[in-house]
Amino acid sequence: MQDEIALMPLSPFEDHEALNPFPTKWDFVLVCDDHSLNSEKDKKKKSFLDELHRKGFIIKMIKDEKLFYGVQAPSVMFRKYQWLLKNIDTDSEVISGVQQEDSSEVISTTRIRIVSFILQNIKIQSTKGLLENLHDLIKMKVFETAFPLHERENLGAFLKMNWARWRDIIYRQPIEEIRTYFGEKVALYFAWLGWYTCILFVAAVPGIILAIYGLISFSSSQISKEICAANTTMMCPLCDQKCPFWPLSETCTYAQVTHLLDNEGTVLFAIFMAVWATVFLELWKRKRAAVVSAWKLYLWDEEEEEVAMELINNPEMASPLHQHSYIRSTVVLILVGLMICVIIGIAHALVIYRVVVTVIFTQSDSEFFRERASTMAVMTGAVLHYLTIIIMSKVNRHVALYLCDMEKPRTFAEREKNVSVKLFTFQFFTHFSSVIYVAFFLGRINGRPGDYVRVGGKWRLEECHPSGCLVDLFIQMAVIMTLKQTLSNFVEFMLPWIRYKYKLLFRNPKSNNRVHMEESARDPCKEEWLWNYNLNEVNVFSLFNEYLEMMIQYSFTTIFVAAFPLAPLLAFINNLIEIRLDAIKMVRLQRRMVPRTANDIGIWLLILEAIGILAVIGNGMVIAITSDFIPMQVYKYTSSPCVQKNYTGKDCLAGYVNYSLSVFNVQDFGNHENLPEHKDPMGNVITHCRYRDYRDSEDYSYTVEFWHIFAARLSFLILFEHVALCIKLIAAWFVPDVPRSIKNEHLKQKRERLLKRLRRMDDSTEV
After folding, report:
1. Do residues 59 and 53 touch, judged by C-beta distance below 8 A?
2. Dist. CA 278–CA 727, nearest whole Å
3. Is residue 581, in this structure, part of any structural domain at all?
4. Is the dihedral of CA 214, 215, 220, 225 positive or negative?
5. What is the pLDDT of residue 679?
6. 21 with 116, same domain?
7. CA atoms of 53 and 61, how far apart (whole Å)
């Protein structure tokens, strides 16, 4: 059963397209249940359709298990759009969104965008006198959903065969075709993601070289040799009970792995990544300028287009005004601060978890768990951190949307911008609070033997291995980044695929297939609308989610890259998959997104610049605080054999391990009677043990070496950040945001436009 309703156009000078009751293409499809006649939902549905009727829309109804209403807007709306938004880049010669060959023909993305805006802003009056829009009607189950249609032929088929396939993973993306089909906002996302992925390869190469260098010198490090040979250097127990004194040589493998990350090339790589982040952004700005200039959108104004569509929808209705309230802003700021405190509190809970798990493992009867207690605690803590990220991501989204609604943004674009800043802030603290603790606090606030800092007065805080804390940071980042990029991508692709296959399998009983095929043959619209309906629904923030995912990845790739030089390589591999995964989702598994115009990536560019600054600070602190680079340099130039002019074949770092360990008198333990028997492997009674710090062996106060190293760390941090930031500023100045050719082209267009106006004025003066 089907019914068609052809509506008269808005004005008598409308073209014949609106008079055709059987358009070849439909702008949007509304879906609802078959409500009982004269019910409240049925009345609201009729009121909404009547409002469309009054605006001149053509409406076609098809009945299946649901009611489908295809709508097509009258061409007068698009002519108004063309007139109001003549492209100022070319002085009205070419109109954005209009095919130049025929000024009356509007491309599908523009039609869909305008119709979507009108549908979302049509308001009907309820029985209670309230105004309700389409969003309200969907919440009240009057309509189930509304969506534009995919093209199963022409451009849609082209994108399926040349873009949305795994076999095309290494091929160039058809950005122009993506723009024509999905709009400029989606096209710019894929242009940026493709550019980011290409530049990631440049960052991955030195990271791989650094890792290879570490592997080559795996066993040749002087510090590793000393630790592996320290069989008689007895370390203080790692817990209060059942933990024996242990020889330093047990951390031999750990020390060798540390050298993979903490070697001579780490500082150079950190500086390179700071410069890389700046050059990447500057080159993207040039790429973006070239792309949007070719699209005639360089001077496009988002607010102007929004106002134009408001006038097309209802010229009598006043546009919403910008609002600002210092009281609301203060409340939002306080709530944001409280949310950040909650996220940091969760990070503290993870710290307590690691402390308790470390105690449990060290007191285990299994020798395997006792020897690897600290590593197991860090790894399981990283997995638990990943699970909290998944949970808090949903909580953060709801909180960010709620806070954004409190600010009462004027337009969707303003709302998206506000949500972006808040949600990224929440997600950043969710992802990095625990990482920051491991990088800068682990092993530095735990006290010393005989005077440990305890959680709840019972459990000792964690300690770093004598070989350093960098491996703990490496493990934390590797686990989180690997899980996030594998499991998250798997879920992101498989859930829509399973939902889509499930709908195809159960949408119609087999007994009705013949009837369904006969009806589809009589009306091809039915098959097309049902196919689109069975695709997965697109969230209004779906593209926002993709950007957010990439911003978090970019943070992992840059901020702590000194501790994880393989991060750019993992990000590069992930993004090759991510591009095709997103393409397949958008073209094959999801309904068509409502196209939106854009001439840049919006607030995300500012977020990228902020991450670049944090990358300089983060990597500088990793090298100055987490790494042993500074203590090694202080030893090399103050106490090493090289300073003492002793060049008899000794390495300059010879003796550094003994230099970095303090001495503790076993008799000074407060729980001395609970310790195991104090004998070393040679059978000698242990009277002293070593621990990682710079303290006096008599009163355990900080030694002169501690203050030398502290001053050197602080000096290096200030110097590194200033040098790196200066290099960033020089690189930003050296690489212009807009290519010279684009500037000259715009200059030429301006001159021609003004010259044409001057000639018109002269002609009118002569007349």
Report:
1. yes
2. 9
3. yes
4. positive
5. 66
6. yes
7. 13
Phi first, then psi, for residue 275 (nearest 5°) are -70, -40
- From its phi and psi, is residue 596 left (phi > 0), alpha (psi between -120 and 50) or beta? beta
Q: Is 721 left (phi over 0), alpha (psi -120 to 50) or beta?
A: alpha
C-alpha 463/C-alpha 310 separation (Å) is: 62
31 contacts: CB under 8 Å, gap ≥ 6:
66, 67, 68, 69, 143, 144, 145, 146, 147, 533
DSSP state of 56: T
Looking at residue 682, its amino acid is M
Q: Read off the amino acid at residue 41.
A: K
**Spatial separation of the C-alpha atoms in residues 449 and 735, rounded to whole Å:** 54
- Identify whether 158 is part of a domain: no
CB 148 within 8 Å of CB 537: no
DSSP-assigned letters across all residues of 280-300: HHHHHHHHHHHHHHHTT-TT-
Task: State the residue range of the domain holding 594.
Answer: 175-630
Taking the C-alpha atoms of residue 223 and residue 220, their distance in angstroms, rounded to an integer, is 9
Residue 4 β-bridge partners: 60
Alpha-carbon distances, residue 258 vs 253, 269, 273, 475 (angstroms) = 9, 16, 20, 11
> Distance between CA 742 and CA 746 in Å, rounded?
6
What total of structural domains would you count in the chain?
Answer: 4
The answer to whether the beta carbons of residues 211 and 235 sit under 8 Å apart is no
Residue 132 pairs in a beta bridge with 124
Query: How far is residue 752's CA from residue 758's CA, in Å, rounded to a whole number?
Result: 10
CB-side neighbour CA atoms (13 Å) of 708: 15
Spans of the chain, pLDDT less than 50: 1-20, 88-104, 509-511, 672-673
CB count in 10 Å sphere of residue 202: 14
pLDDT at 711: 94
One-letter amino acid for residue 30 of the chain: L
Domain match, 123 and 91 both: yes
The burial of 518, by beta-carbon neighbours within 10 Å (0-12 exposed, 13-18 middle, 19 or more buried), is given as: exposed
The number of angstroms, rounded, from the C-alpha of 288 to the middle of its chain's C-alpha atoms is 20
Closest CA to 122 of 139, 134, 136, 137: 134
Same domain, 565 and 704: no
Taking the CA atoms of 419, 583, 482 and 500 in sequence, report the sign of the dihedral they define: positive
Can you give the pLDDT at residue 553? 92
Instruction: Report residue 315 CA to chain centroid gap.
Output: 39
Of 597, 143, 606, the closest CA to residue 413 belongs to 597
How far apart are the C-alpha atoms of 185 and 195, rounded to whole Å?
Answer: 15
Q: Where a domain ends, among 630, 648, 673?
A: 630
Identity of the amino acid at 221 = S
pLDDT of residue 6: 39
Same domain, 10 and 65: yes
Give the tens place of pLDDT for each residue, 377-397: 778 887 888 888 889 988 999
Q: Do 595 and 454 belong to one domain?
A: yes
The answer to whether residue 153 is domain-embedded is: no
Answer whether residue 435 is part of any domain.
Answer: yes
Answer yes or no: do 139 and 244 share one domain.
Answer: no
With beta carbons less than 8 A apart as the criterion, state whether 55 and 10 touch: yes
CA–CA separation, 532 and 519 (whole Å): 17
How high is the pLDDT of residue 491?
Answer: 84
Q: Please name which of 50, 68, 55 lies closest in space to residue 18, comparing C-alpha atoms.
A: 55
End-to-end CA gap in the chain: 66
Using an 8 Å Cβ cutoff, are 438 and 431 in contact?
A: no
